[in-house]
Write a structure and sequence with these properties.
heterodimer, A: alpha+beta, six-stranded mixed beta sheet, five-stranded antiparallel beta sheet, B: mainly alpha, binds adenosine-5'-triphosphate, binds magnesium ion
Chain lengths: ~375, ~280
Amino acid sequence: MASIDIRNVRKNFGIVSVLHGVDLAIENGEFVVLVGPSGCGKSTLLRMIAGLEEVTEGEIRIDGVRVNERAPKDRDIAMVFQSYALYPHMNVAENMSYGLRIRKAAREKITAAVSNAARKLELQPLLARRPKALSGGQRQRVAMGRAIVRQPKAFLFDEPLSNLDARLREQMRAEIKKLHRDLGATSIYVTHDQIEAMTLADRIVAMHEGVVQQVGSPLELYDRPANLFVAGFIGSPAMNFLSARYEFGGSTAGARLPDGTLIGLSSGYQLEQGAAVTLGIRPEHVEMSPASESSLRATVDLIEPTGFGIILHLGLHGLPFNVFTLDRAALTAGPTVTVAFPPQHLHLFDETGKRALESGLQKRKS
Amino acid sequence: MNRYSIFGTALHRLAILCYVVFALFPLFWLLKVSVTPNDLLYSEGVRMWPSQMSFEHFRFVLAHSAFPIFFRNSMIVAGATAVIVTLLASLSGYALSRFTFRGKYWLVALMLLTQMFPLVMLVAPIFKMLSPLGLTNSLTGLVVVYTAFNIPFATFLMQSFFDGIPKELEEAAKIDGATQFMAFRQIILPLTLPGIAATLGFVFTAAWSELLFALMLISGNSAATFPVGLLTFVSKFSVDFGQMMAAGVLALIPACLFFLFIQRYLVQGLTAGAVKG
Ligand SMILES: Nc1ncnc2c1ncn2[C@@H]1O[C@H](COP(=O)(O)OP(=O)(O)OP(=O)(O)O)[C@@H](O)[C@H]1O
Ligand SMILES: [Mg+2]
């Protein structure tokens, strides 16, 4: 168990700069999930923590000790690869015990650790098999088992579930969560999967093009995304964005859409009158309502029932706009519908894409 | 299976059969002549098998010629070359496959360059180099020369086998606590056995059948290898085909045994199950 400190870490591959100064403090026992689009540097960061990539600049500390120059073997961390990377010429038990064997642990200790891990992961009947005689899910378990037998200071996971089918992924996700609860080990987990990120994380780190965009609890990122990138990245189907101009007067504030509709906001913002803004609203927060002065008319392009709910693909002034609803009546929605935006669910982003700072409406009046 | 595909398969098999017969017929002829008694060799005309078989040529070759010495020399030279080359090539192939280092590009270019010259061009300079070192007319000299000429190709061969092994396996081993060398020895090397077997086999046969350098660097029987030895059956006035063929058959035996021994490692698929599901 350990804390991990990442201080202003940069990474260049030759002349290509991949990480531009990442700062992150991970506490002992914390489960941190790294999310971000493909190529944003998640794996690179993870591999630097593991010692598989050199740190170009900055510092990585494990338990307060600088480890930049330490070989992977001296960092006492475990890593689960997306491809599992099981040793093909060793059976399951040998795969799991390899780390202990080369550390010259006592034989009884090795046997105990392996059988303990095998019991946790239900691998007992498979101990004598070679990896090629295992299913994908079983291989995944062995990879997890290999990580836990050593009781390392921290676990690193690089998209460990992405090669599994949806059902198995759900099951393993729950198991990883249980394992973390039981072992309480510091974990860093890279994923593309929204749900994995939301369900597993104590804190999510959203990255984009080598820069950390926001760090916070899953609900913080969902409720108060710090910028347009995080707003668009977290949540599925993704948040809708509309460009508008900020207006305030008296005790009200609103966003004026290009067609002249004024959308009411629940609070004021530290913005100039008429400032260009982007209005964001999640598909699940849009209301289908009877026409009113702040409602908008949209054409229905496509209806996607998911079983649990319905996703409506709409066209709003020719721009795509999604609505998610649990109301089955939406299945028979006509060629046009009217939608309304509840003010408490609106997100406002300024010209630079940052979340606009709120301010009291009264202050604005002066 | 429809009629067309049966026909296609039959044609395919037939074509393969033709090639195999074409390739193996000289070997068959070798065997046939080696068991034909001298007096029947020219008198029976062209026959697929002599009316009378005899092992007199084998007996003569083994008991009364210098062939056992040639055979021993060849074993030493080919065996030593194969082992040394494979050992060096697996190290250098691994380095080329896994590390980036200064001058790598030029090193590879240089190794390719060595493969571009006809060996005949190099005989004289090699002789000039080896004779002051006392390495002409010696088995060691042959091993040195063969090793030098086989290493570039063997290195490329080994490199391609290492390239086929996922990098993550080593990384996993390093994280598990292994040093670079331990990861190489305990994880990568066992998975490269097919490649090592192929390289051993390739170098062994190349060294076993090499004639040019053996002929130029060796004089006299004591250090002659068997391809040179075969020529002793050619005398000024006649060629003793029966004995020559018998020696040839005997020379085939180690090569066959060697491949029989390594063929189980040649079977690919050892890395199956390493990555992905
Ligand atoms: N060895 C390397 N040499 C050069 N560039 C590299 C190397 N490894 C990674 N990169 C580059 O670094 C960037 C980040 O790669 P990284 O693998 O960290 O992305 P990622 O966030 O893990 O993406 P994914 O979600 O697709 O796995 C990419 O643009 C990639 O092309
Ligand atoms: Mg990645």
